[in-house]
Specification:
- This protein has helices at about 10-15, 25-40, 45-60.
- By secondary structure, it is mainly α.
Length: about 70
Amino acid sequence: MIPDTSNPCWRRVLTSETDLSGAVLATKLLVTRMRREVKARPGSLGPKIVELREYFEKNTFAAKDIALF
């Protein structure tokens, strides 16, 4: 099950340097880009959380990566 956007795991993954070595390449690329964007514009965190959650809803192959968060 994909956590709700209010779950702290989303904030944690986008604002930390959590290791993503076990994630699929698509997830690594997306999270890396989003981290840079959030770091540059902290006010974009909310929309980025929604975007990341939608990625997992659409791409079931990456669902196991949620456990890394």
